[in-house]
């Protein structure tokens, strides 16, 4: 089926189901960052924004490598300070669809000023101080420079201590969707996930509408192969408690594929991505695996695999958070009961709007974007 056919199918499904978003509940955790979006200055001609930025990551890298044995002073010009972290950005994007969202994570005590409105709107539970990220954006990607020592405090015992066992069980039991993201930057998250699986979820009982889990590793390149295999095993075991989706970008998918000893991913074309998603899903025995490079996205379930071409944006207004908006679109569509190709279409459209506007879209806006999108790269 072509992207245009998926567009028509998705619009039909959204017309029938988007109104149900207000009755859906999502619980998201566990990170939190203050994102400082910056540009690296190449040449400055005056004060303020009177400068030419370094446009490509290779040029930025060369500026740094040329300083070996000497020194360098690279100015980072602040463009925006905003809510950051995979969890908060994903939660905000889901909230924009009309669903009710509860957040647990690293927002500060009291919440950092960038999180004040978010914390109130999501009845947030803050476990510790947020990390700080300087996101250096270029035309061909971004470099994230993070300070995250506070995330060491995100543990199962801190969760119990902060919420109390009763309130915690109640929060998890109410959720249609439970999104647990940014494993890479939370050192104790494998243990946290294992404790929740063994001590909390068996006590919740079944949900009439089912319970879905969404996991995002968040660039695990700095974690060891052993650590990665351990968390993948825990994620796989969540299938006993509901439907499990693992979301991966292409680099993450390649690393997970290598660690699991599977056939190398050939490329980012439809066939290669569908085949890779299917292999990973079969190996992990999860409900769904989704892989989303910039060019499009593929997912696989036990039934089949699908691919949708994405609305690539050559000059995005913002790129930090694009993947989190993809995850939000995909998991919201799953909560609404959309078919896998419709979930992919909503996901790429949600991300596509965000990089063009730096704003999380409503489902009405997503439907309008899909309606106007010709399946290419507008």
Q: How does this model look, in words?
A:
With 378 residues, this protein is α/β, with parallel strands linked by helices. The chain has a single domain (3-34, 81-372), classed as UDP-N-acetylmuramoyl-L-alanine:D-glutamate ligase. The protein has 13 helices and 14 strands. It has helices at residues 3-17, 57-65, 86-95, 116-121, 156-163, 165-174, 189-200, 225-237, 250-259, 270-284, 322-335, 340-357, 363-372; strands spanning 25-29, 33-44, 51-53, 76-84, 100-105, 125-126, 131-138, 141-147, 177-181, 212-216, 243-248, 288-291, 296-300, 305-309. The strands form 2 sheets. A 9-stranded mixed β-sheet has the order 6-5-1-9-10-11-12-13-14, sandwiched between helices. Strands 2, 3, 4, 7 and 8 form a 5-stranded mixed β-sheet that branches. The longest helix has 18 residues, at 340-357. The chain is globular and about 65 Å long.
Describe the structure concisely.
The protein is globular and about 65 Å long. The protein has helices spanning 3-17, 57-65, 86-95, 116-121, 156-163, 165-174, 189-200, 225-237, 250-259, 270-284, 322-335, 340-357, 363-372, and strands at residues 25-29, 33-44, 51-53, 76-84, 100-105, 125-126, 131-138, 141-147, 177-181, 212-216, 243-248, 288-291, 296-300, 305-309.
- By CATH, the architecture is named 3-Layer(aba) Sandwich
Measured by DSSP, the beta-strand proportion falls in 15-25%
Topology as H/E string? HEEEHEHEHEEEHHEHEHEHHEEEHHH
Looking at the structure, the CATH topology is UDP-N-acetylmuramoyl-L-alanine:D-glutamate ligase
CA radius of gyration is: 20 Å
Major pleated sheet: 9 strands, mixed
Gap between N and C termini: 20 Å
Nearest-integer average pLDDT:
94
Count of extended strands: 14
The level of helicity is: 25-40%
Q: What's the CATH class label?
A: Alpha Beta
């Amino acid at each position: 089926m072509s992207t245009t056919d998926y567009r028509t199918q998705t619009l039909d499904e959204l017309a029938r189901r988007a109104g149900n978003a207000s009755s859906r509940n999502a619980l998201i955790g566990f990170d939190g960052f203050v994102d400082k979006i910056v540009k690296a200055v190449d040449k400055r001609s005056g004060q303020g924004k009177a400068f030419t930025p370094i446009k490509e990551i290779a040029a930025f890298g060369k500026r740094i490598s040329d300083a070996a044995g000497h020194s360098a002073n690279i100015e980072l010009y602040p463009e925006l300070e905003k809510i950051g972290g995979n969890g908060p950005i994903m939660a905000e994007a889901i909230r924009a669809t009309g669903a009710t969202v509860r957040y647990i994570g690293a927002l500060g005590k009291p919440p950092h000023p960038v999180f004040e409105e978010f914390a109130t709107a999501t009845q947030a539970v803050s476990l510790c101080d947020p990390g700080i990220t300087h996101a250096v954006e270029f035309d061909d990607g971004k470099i994230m420079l993070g300070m995250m020592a506070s995330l060491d405090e995100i543990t199962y015992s801190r969760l119990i201590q902060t919420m109390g066992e009763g309130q915690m069980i109640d929060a998890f039991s109410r959720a249609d969707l439970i999104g647990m993201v940014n494993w890479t930057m939370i050192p104790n998250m494998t243990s946290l996930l294992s404790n929740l699986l063994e001590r909390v979820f068996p006590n919740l009982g079944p949900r009439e509408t089912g319970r879905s889990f969404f996991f995002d590793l968040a660039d695990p390149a700095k974690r060891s192969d052993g650590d990665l295999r351990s968390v993948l095993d825990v994620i796989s075991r969540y299938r006993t408690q509901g439907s499990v989706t693992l979301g991966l970008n292409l680099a993450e998918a390649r690393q997970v594929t290598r660690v699991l000893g599977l056939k190398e991913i050939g490329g980012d074309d439809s066939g290669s991505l569908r085949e890779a998603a299917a292999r990973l899903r079969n190996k992990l025995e999860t409900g769904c695996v989704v892989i989303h490079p910039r060019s499009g996205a593929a997912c696989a379930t036990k039934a089949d695999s699908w691919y949708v071409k994405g609305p690539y944006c050559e000059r995005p207004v913002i790129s930090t958070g694009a993947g989190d908006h993809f995850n939000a679109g995909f998991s919201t569509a799953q909560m609404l009961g959309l078919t896998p190709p419709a979930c992919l279409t909503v996901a790429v459209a949600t991300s596509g709007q965000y990089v063009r506007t730096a704003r999380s879209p409503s489902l009405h806006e997503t439907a309008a974007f899909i309606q106007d999108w010709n399946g290419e790269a507008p």
